Fold each of these.
Amino acid sequence: MIVKNDKKEEILTQFEDVEPIRLKNITSDLMYEKSILKYKQNNKYGIIDFSGKKLTRPIYDEIDSLPYKEGELIVKQNEKYGILNMNGNILVDIDYDEINVDGYYTDENNYKYAGYIVSNKTEEGYRYGYINSYGETILKVEYNELSRINDIENKDSVYLICAKNGQFGVIKDGKNLLNNEYQSIRYDENNSVLVVEKTKKYGIANLDGKLIVPVEYSQIDITGIYIYAQNTQGTTVYNTDGTQANVETNISILNTDNDKYRIRINNENGTKYGIIGKDGKKIVDEKYNYIEYLYNNYFIVSDENSKLGVIDDKDNVKIEIKYDALQKVQDTEIIQTTLVEENKIELYDNQMNNVCSMEKATVLVKDKYVKMYNEKEIKYFNKTGKELKNTEVFENNKLFSIKDENNNWGFVDRGGNIIVDYQYEKVTEFNEYGFAAVKKEGKWGAINEQGEEVVKPSYQLNEEIEPIFLGKYYKVTYAFGEFYFTDENK
């Protein structure tokens, strides 16, 4: 590969070959590592920074990015794998036949505190061990199976389910929590307990390794806040601390994100849902086919016809129970409903007022606003459902789209003066690069911030509903998030 500087001069010519390192399965929008390259000398690889400074000698057979862990590299040397950081320092010794990231993820830190499941092949098959995110060996490579309980969000405490000779146990931070004496172990994330099996009998252990429900039941089900343990004598209901619960076996209680409310499910004569308070007192009768807590004092409910709506905690209907689909728009307090037969989407604000109804619509969530649009109209809302003008949404833009009574589009300035006449069948607002897409006779082009056509509508873009232009080039995005700009006319 040829590398040039900002003066278009070829650099790094002292190496046989220089390549960027493509990132894999990370949350960043970057396609490649942003500070290093790999180079080749004498059929071996090393890494350099962009100035050409060697960060490692060329001693590796392979160098690649480590999936999920930006800033870390997996290297191969003498048929073994290890992990390097961006400075070329070894994080995981080059001693293993395989290395995989354990999958631990948090919204705040992404995969930063994920550890490494390492393995070597033996005559009896693969054996597994574990190295934490700090590079410390927690378990030697001696287990038949190994996985981390990723639903326990504690970066400093690693819970591992490990198997030896078909017997499972749990290890916390390198110390035995449950011995390897179980045929299976399953973690219940809603109640933070472990369901264990031994000789086809089941019990419950807590995260301190204590058995709180004896391993003597033929079946254990956990629904909501209760454990239902069955044997030949019937069903015993336990609280999740292991004490017996004073509740009928046909009743299930689900916690909600609001401590004031719980969902009560009665399975006696068909499954019916109601709402109770934290004190157990009835708030809404068990008459709905489904109830899900929404936010504030609102709940999504479903009737016997599987239609959806919203009620409050006094059983007042706030959104009519008639919709085929209903959901909270991600990262907002807006409710989106769908009527399939009418091909219509409706939006409700955080007070459950209908703020928009649109056929064949698409809803798009951005950082600071929500956009709802179809072929004929575009509407913007803040995250609580208040409608916004495009001048409020794109406060740094100079021109703004506007539609006339004949559904033709043009552009005005902030004072409402027409700068681009009503001549287009569809347009976009100006993007971060200073261009707006315009459509005429089914083809797309672009204008600049002065209202001048920099690309006459000539692109036939069947896959691009609203293309993003950078001058004469438009943006194409792969399914996995990578993108490029092209002037190829489809």
Amino acid sequence: MFATAQLLTWGVSFAAVAGVITRPFGWSEWVFAVAGVALLVGLGLIGTGDVLAGVAAGTDVYLFLAGMMMLAEVARREGLFDWLAARAARAAAGSAQRLFLLVYAVGTLVTVFLSNDATAVVLTPAVAAVARAAKAPSAIPYLLVCAFVANAASFVLPISNPANLVIFGEELPPLAEWLSRFALPSLVAIVATYAVLRWTQGADLRGETARDIPIPVLSRGGRLAALGICIGAAILLVASWTGAELGLPTLLCGLATLLAVLVAERSDPRAVLKGISWDTLVLVAGLFVIVRALEKAGVSTVLAGLLRSLVAEGTELAAAVSGIALAFGTNVTNNLPLGLLAGATMAAVDVPEKVTDAILIGIDLGPNLSVTGSLATILWLTALRREGLDFGAWRFLKLGVLVMPPALLLALAALLLQPWT
């Protein structure tokens, strides 16, 4: 009976995750996560106590995402990202190649300090508008930047990717330690991703762009949003430095920035709140519950056994194999549920630091292979469609095969070879 219940739990859970990734009938991702939880409860595979415990486990992530989405939406509505992108286009001085570099630099900064989801959701439409205004030969190379840098730069800081929070959980390293472990691999990943993207998009980066790009006037609300983001980044850096949880500071910063802009512009808060993807929080909560069900069904035990066997063969081998395997695994399961499972598995195994770091690198960088790898890439596709553009899954995969493996292998090599960790 236990074996049957175990198999049912695995089947329902993986079907729910498959629904999140593929979105049959065009339904939102959260629908499949919630349906999976409802089916698990309805079949008696988990109880309401497990549901509540699973939801509660994600509290810090919900607060973090809510605060980041609030900051990003305020900045978007006040035109901050349009202003930044237009400045980058003007600074390109008519060079399509220089514009590509500048967009990559802006995307890196947004990812590092506002998370990869903000890059995918907010920067994508701004970059599309600037590419049109600059009369670029093709908007696609610049839009691809938004997708690929969102993952390549997502482990510079703990706040750069929600997956970082779920992998480490309460064991999140303080900022100084984080930077000593991930600064070099992050730099290598960012540079390698840029180099391959630049090479593959070379044909569309020939010629000139318009030089006289109109710079939109940055409103008072936009300036306040920029100030709020800067203050928020500083607060989060301090929180990371001290090892404090990041969720509550992020939410408070988002609320304070929203309030300041609303008062300054005398605007209606409902417009901002309506623009935030609250269903993302429902999706994440559902995934937390599904992962808890999988833990109870023994998935973490199986994975823990495999991880112990790898570690017994040697730290370097375990780090390399784990990082590569999970990087490709993210494209089958999506990196958020896989990150949750990885975090639960590592909590049950005495894992060397380098193995833990390699797992995080794999989960963060792996999604650059396909459109199913991360929530950020899925959100990027949605933003692209709103602009009347499309970039098919097969086309993305053919590009991802060239972009992701070199960045992954070089980042893992940098991790394993750096002498100070």
